[in-house]
Specification:
The structure is a homodimer. Chain A is an alpha/beta fold. Chain A is built from 14 helices and 17 strands.
Chain lengths: 424, 424
């Protein structure tokens, strides 16, 4: 008996899932013996359906009909957004249907409620496509690394940001220019805020943090900083220091707490994450038994994302009569660590008037806050031009660095707020 | 009810599995809700057991006792080798026990027989640790990429070879010297043939080829070439051409056939596989929906390998009463492609006497075989010293290149057999 699949939303990802379920059931059967069959598509916009051969598939404008369809055992929610998607998923779970979704924003905001509804109804709620698209990172953490305590996760999880930073790095362009190009090419949304302000990455960070540590991490406790303040100057200075700038989601276990944060970081050029270019995603994980592992692939796109959605459907089909697996286990209640407690190295770019004794005064301020300097770049500039002093600190505490920077920015010869970027 | 685990063999990997099952059952329970319990260890060498706290665990010198133990539902075969391991696994499968193994040589030689025994008895035979150690590559292919036709797999699957080639690359040393170092450090076995002659990689290649294409690939049909002929000269010339030399397992689908081959390759420095250094493994996969994905981690070592073994145990535990999954599906019977049909670019290093017209004659021979040259390096040498002429061909057919090289090696001014390395 094939397992019946219903797809709500025939947009980019939903359309990809329909494509795969129409074209690739043979390869799925070959690899697993399982039969999956598309039974129902719910889509208001009829024009989106004209590209598919949906003979034998029910089509409804109303998702409630799909959820009620007795031939549908697995409901794929692929409409995105929060409010309607939440309602539909809860309805499907309460109706005893398994649910597959790619909706990271919804999971980050309401994952706890959805997980409880899935458990209450003894059904699966799966979300492989929600984090890092086609990369099987949820599976790697939940299954491949199941025997491991996960010490640290470093993820490049937003293709738009990685594309923009790559173009800034390899073409020496400014953020605004690259963003416009990316929007023209369809690599960036308009408005771009969800991506470039780091929120999309924060949603994925929330999911990974909760999953890795079996503890609920509230989204508002994830520290978020986007890439809009990164300039080509920073990219160029970072390269002089042998580093690239990447937007990373970081999840670490530190002193009994969980660090969950999203911000740009200087990554050494020799690190594998530095090789992850353009719109690709990757996740680097350090754990107690497996040591370092890395997973790389496309974080977005019609078929890559749909490939992950279908892998969830097939997992449910293969499981057969086996017990449903909880989407999240909130076994623990681990505090989320304050960003001020972070310890690391910091890149600081100061903008000053050309003035004798600047470096001495800055170093004095840093020193009084316990921040010491590992390296320094200052270049000759034309008279009257502002001078950039770029410093890399030794290992320091974030709250001390922040206090020092606040004091530095109050000095009379400082012409613009100091740029601070954390280093890996 | 916890699932009971028996471990046959308490050597490196078996000892690691015992360690994890004694120390990390809490994290497994947190992530999955599943309970796994070590119930029985079979090991002849009592001295290997003194490091473990095995209170409450049965210990037998005889694996038959472990297989017969009604408290054991999952048998881990971790003794390695072929003959005894095959007998034990078949006994366990016939006794209705699930089996987990890391034994690639056994799977490559007898995978078909073992898969049939598992299917006949309705039990699982799992082998995540057999290929690429801690990297969940079997899971990625069978589950993460389940909806994909897999076009190509390029794997760095032998840590010893990758370590040796890395040291030759970054320290400019010769093969023999690095091999001796690697043996002293425990990174290479004595004798090293199974690794450096490519056979270990071929075993893994056989497994991946059969798995990716749901078709049985006989081990003797996997083309194998090791790294013993690679010299520091080749490594240096490759770098001049912007490439590193890696031992790769390649599985491709070409014109209705399966390519399954193991040999050194020139990999461009910008390719992600070029960043995989020292003893690390990685697998790069191209597929129709997911596009390019890469998986990276430790291919060997006590805890990394054991981590993969335990992930298989937990998968069986989590599945609960669900149906057993076939270890291999031999749905198809796809021919394995002859190496002579391979098309690609070739690195050729000729050793000649310094002699006018050498390059012209060589190019003429290549030309008559339809092989054209993309680039050439020839350096000034001291009088009387042999001259190395290094050529990179355009896309050519292997059988033509081989015929041309045979003819070239018969020319009177050629002083040593021409080195041929395929390029990615």
């Amino acid at each position: 008996m094939p397992i019946g699949v219903g797809v709500i939303g025939a947009g980019t990802v939903g359309g990809g899932v329909i494509d795969i379920l129409l074209a690739n059931t043979g390869v799925i059967r070959d690899k697993t013996g399982a039969e999956v069959a598309l039974k129902h598509v719910a889509e208001l916009r009829q024009e989106l359906l004209s590209d598919f051969d949906l003979s034998g598939v029910r089509v409804s404008p109303d998702a409630a009909d799909l959820i009620a369809d007795p031939e549908v055992q697995v409901v794929c929610e692929l409409i995105g957004g929060v409010k309607a998607a939440r309602t539909l998923i809860l309805q499907a779970l309460e109706a005893g249907k398994h649910v597959v979704t790619a909706n990271k924003m919804l999971l980050a905001m309401h994952g706890r409620e959805l997980a409880e509804a899935a458990a209450r109804n003894g059904v699966e709620l799966r979300y492989e496509a929600a984090v890092a698209g086609t990369i099987p990172i949820i599976k790697a953490i939940r299954e491949g690394l199941v025997a491991n305590h996960i010490h640290a996760v470093y993820g490049i999880l937003n293709g738009t940001c990685n594309y923009i930073l790559s173009r800034m790095t390899y073409e020496g362009k400014e953020f605004d220019e690259v963003l416009k190009q990316a929007q023209a090419l369809g690599f960036a949304e308009t408005p771009p805020d969800l991506d470039v302000e780091g929120h999309d990455t924060a949603h994925k960070c929330q999911i990974l943090a909760s999953l890795c540590h079996s503890s609920y991490v509230p989204l508002e406790r994830v520290y978020v900083e986007g890439i809009t303040r990164i300039t080509h100057l920073d990219v160029a200075y970072a390269r002089e220091m042998g580093c690239l700038i990447k937007l990373l989601a970081v999840v670490r276990r530190v002193e009994g707490e969980i660090e969950a944060r999203v911000h740009p970081m200087l990554v050494p050029e020799t690190h594998l994450l530095a090789s992850v270019r353009n719109e690709f995603n990757a996740v680097y994980i350090e754990s107690d038994c497996a040591d370092a592992t890395l997973y790389y692939g496309r974080g977005a796109g019609r078929l890559p994302t749909a490939s992950a959605v279908v892998s969830d459907i097939v997992d449910i089909a293969v499981r057969g009569g086996g017990p449903a697996r909880a989407p999240f286990q909130y076994t623990h209640d681990i505090p989320v660590r304050d960003i001020g407690l972070l310890e690391g190295r910091y890149y600081l770019r100061l903008t000053t008037r050309d003035h004798p004794g600047v470096l001495g005064k800055v170093c004095t301020v840093l020193g009084t806050h316990g921040v010491s300097i590992a390296s320094c770049i200052q270049k000759d500039t034309a008279p009257g031009e502002p001078v950039h002093v770029v410093l890399m600190t030794h290992e320091s505490v974030e709250s001390s660095v922040a206090a020092a920077v606040a004091e530095i920015d109050g000095l009379e010869f400082i012409e613009a707020p100091t740029q601070l970027i954390r280093a890996l």
